[in-house]
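cron nightly-structures :: item 1 of 1
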Amino acid sequence: MLSRISYALRETAAGFRRNATLTAAAIITSAVSLLLVGTTFLIQRAFDNLLTRWKGDVELIVYVRSDATAEQVQLIEGALKSQPSIIDVDRLRYLNQAESYAEAERLFAGDPGTLRLLTPENIPSQFKVVPIAEDSALVRELGEQFRQLAGVKEVAYAQDVFDVVSRVSQFIRVATTTMSIILLVVAVGLIWNTIRTAMFARRREIEVMKLVGATNWFIRIPFMLEGLVQGLVGGILSCLGLWGLNTAWTNAVTDFNDTELAALVVTDGYASWIMVLLLGIGALAGAIGSGIAASRFLDV
């Protein structure tokens, strides 16, 4: 068993040396395509962070002062519920200060300066409002009325950010996903071609091995392992690139000190999960490309 493993590893290393140019091209293409895949996931998560407070069809948020009395909070809630023709009363949600702080931890993950200024005691609580009326002007008019109520700190409208963010997010997601799929297919093709070339170059040796009784799988394994390693190395390089991009973006946003941009930072361990996924995709792509080549061109 150990001798077979040693043989497979030795032949895999030899394959890298014999096809250095093709191998490098396959690895680089894999790395670029996987980097685009990872970037797509991070961008989507960043936009999700930005829209966290607007999830669930929320189009209006009434922020309540941290020093508002319980009577003032009840007055605001009563005023909201008194508009059943405009507001979906059943979906009206109130986030107390602790819940609002938990949301802020994600929203301002990239702005530790702002987050340090917030505490569960001084952060505003909030009413999240889902309108029934489709007239955005009517919703904005209603929000302006609530702005005058005692205890209300601010009123925010989804219309100000939602449409632009959603469109940009969708465009980036479609564009990067399309490019990454195309490049991933190209990477699989390059790995396939690398293994095919390696098998053709060693066709005499393969013939001799089959004549002395070597099984097809004994011959295939080093070639399949070579492709798998190519995909895995591409995955590792893409992880390094993704880590560098995410770190640079996080530092840039922190230095810029903008609370809206801060929501676009992904710092909750999601990037680590994406890196594990990229390694898996890279290894799978390499295994597929080499597996097809090793099966199809074994009788060279």
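cron nightly-structures :: done
Residues 2-51+163-296 form one domain.
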